[in-house]
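[recover] target loaded
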């Protein structure tokens, strides 16, 4: 019973819950008479409302009601937006060098040896959805039919990896497996048709290969294999994190002229760091292995301390076009060598601090590859909910996940021109990839939104839905003070406030350009050298 002008007097009457009308205290029915009197804090209605709203989104950690409250098997806690801006999900709506430096500094303090490999994929049911390649990978696979947003997600992957860690601790290598400008998504929006090239201004990117020139492709494959060898020799018996965890007396002190033999006692021979790449421009349009590092750091020291062994993430678009190149495609003669180098990463990369992130539009061509088999993180891009997909495509992504009636889709592999016949795919292999037949891209009742997907971690067969963050959208117009009115169900009262729909500036710079510029300035002021180009 609450009394007083602002209801601060509280009398607890201990009742027995019996029928109404029996004797009680102060007219309380069903009470036995025992009372406790307390004085409660006076709070204003506004305070109470704020408190209630703050509590409303909280859910029991484990509860029988998990399903109702959006536990892992239940409905999403927050409905996914139709589109998401990567910079918002990163908390970098105004990407500034200072905000990036703060992030990198936090990473240096908190992260286990070897540095961060964190990527924000986009908006998930409980806020930004993040994957950690170091802890949950080491490798990731993105499956999706044409136009579902694979290239854009790879770009966002690269951008958010870069936002999380300094360029001297994280290096990115980009491969456009089908050549830039191919694919159904090549026609619209900023960066359309450019493949991963739009990411080359990120200071973390050392090398960008477009798989159209056999000579450069072979050079690339050889250089990548040499890099793995260099790392294996440098690390000896240790793994990447252990190596970084050990004291490095020459770190940053003498520019690496001491090969660190003492600190790596017991380690194998220490090999020279990669030489910086040449500074010649790419000889032709189709031959696009850019020497980015040399262009950006003209005048920088030619080598870096040997102890600077960054984590390396190799991001590959159109992996299927490398595995089964089309007849007559210019890169076809050398595609096998690139695939073999990538597969060496899939096999040995974990210990060497090298990660592989591949996107495939044709799981029937890539399901049997080591790169796909070793991908512990799997992303299926498909706009429709799982229950709206044909049975043979609604496949649990992870090999250890229970399988459904899924074997029909890829029961046989087409043999591509020039390829030896391949063995009949086992049912298990056919469930390794997550995507769908080409027809699955069309949702009933309209086009699916690109970027809608589901992340499958090793221990999560059901997967987590998300809307991929877009990073090549134009910087949105600045916010106005106009109120936004949105209908809200009462069950959603505790959700974070709805965001105003984005209105992009027609021809302004893209978010990616904004972020890359801020990253470059941050890298410069942090004196964070990046790896030399691979070739
Ligand atoms: N997360 C996203 N949000 C909004 N639009 C997106 C998103 N991802 C992709 N798009 C748009 O969808 C179209 C196709 O995207 P993208 O090229 O990344 O698809 P894709 O799966 O790589 O296609 P393809 O296999 O044909 O190369 C592009 O116009 C792109 O701008």
């Amino acid at each position: 019973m609450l009394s007083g002008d602002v209801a601060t007097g509280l009398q607890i009457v201990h009742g027995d819950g019996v029928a109404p009308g029996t004797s009680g205290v102060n007219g309380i029915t069903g009470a036995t008479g025992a009372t406790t009197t307390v004085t409660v804090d006076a709070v204003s209605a506004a305070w109470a409302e704020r408190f209630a709203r703050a509590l409303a989104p909280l859910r029991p950690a484990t509860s029988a009601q998990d399903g109702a409250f959006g536990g892992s098997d239940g409905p999403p806690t927050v409905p996914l937006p139709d589109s998401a801006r990567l910079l918002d999900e990163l908390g970098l709506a105004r990407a500034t060098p200072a905000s990036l430096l703060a992030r990198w500094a936090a990473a240096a303090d908190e992260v286990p040896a070897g540095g961060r490999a964190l990527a924000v994929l986009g908006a998930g049911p409980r806020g930004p959805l993040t994957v950690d390649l170091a802890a949950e990978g080491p490798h990731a696979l993105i499956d999706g039919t044409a136009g579902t947003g694979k290239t854009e997600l790879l770009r966002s992957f690269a951008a958010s990896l870069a936002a999380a860690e300094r360029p001297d601790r994280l290096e990115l290598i980009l491969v456009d497996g089908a050549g830039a400008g191919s694919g159904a998504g090549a026609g619209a929006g900023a960066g359309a048709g450019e493949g991963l090239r739009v990411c080359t201004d990120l200071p973390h990117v050392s090398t960008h290969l477009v798989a159209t020139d056999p000579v450069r492709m072979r050079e690339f494959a050889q250089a990548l294999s040499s890099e793995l060898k260099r790392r294996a020799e440098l690390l000896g018996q240790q793994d990447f994190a252990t190596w970084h965890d050990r004291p490095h007396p020459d770190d940053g002190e003498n520019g690496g002229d001491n090969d660190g033999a003492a600190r790596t006692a017991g380690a194998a021979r220490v090999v020279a760091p990669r030489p910086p790449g040449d500074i010649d421009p790419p000889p032709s349009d189709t031959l696009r292995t850019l020497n980015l590092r040399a262009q950006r750091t003209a005048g920088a020291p030619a080598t870096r301390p040997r102890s600077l062994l960054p984590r390396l993430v190799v991001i590959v678009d159109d992996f299927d076009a490398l595995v089964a190149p089309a007849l007559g495609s210019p890169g076809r003669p050398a595609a096998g060598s690139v695939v073999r180098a990538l597969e060496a990463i899939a096999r040995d990369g974990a210990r060497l601090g090298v990660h592989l992130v591949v996107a495939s539009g044709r799981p029937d061509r890539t399901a049997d590859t080591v790169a796909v088999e070793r991908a512990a993180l799997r992303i299926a891009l498909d706009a429709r909910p799982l229950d709206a997909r044909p049975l043979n495509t609604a496949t649990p992504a992870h090999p250890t996940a229970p399988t459904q009636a899924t074997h029909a889709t890829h029961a046989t592999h087409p043999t591509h021109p020039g390829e030896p016949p391949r063995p009949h795919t086992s049912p298990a292999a056919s469930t390794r990839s997550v995507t769908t037949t080409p027809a699955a891209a069309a949702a009933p009742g309209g086009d699916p939104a690109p970027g809608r997907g589901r992340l499958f971690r090793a221990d999560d067969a059901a997967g987590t839905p998300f809307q991929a963050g877009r990073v090549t959208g134009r910087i949105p117009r600045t916010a106005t003070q106009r109120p936004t009115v949105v209908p809200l169900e009462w069950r959603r009262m505790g959700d974070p406030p709805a965001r105003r729909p984005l209105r992009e500036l027609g021809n302004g710079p893209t978010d990616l350009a904004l972020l890359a510029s801020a990253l470059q300035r941050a890298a410069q002021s942090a004196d964070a050298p990046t790896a030399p180009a691979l070739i």
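[recover] notes: The mean pLDDT is 72.
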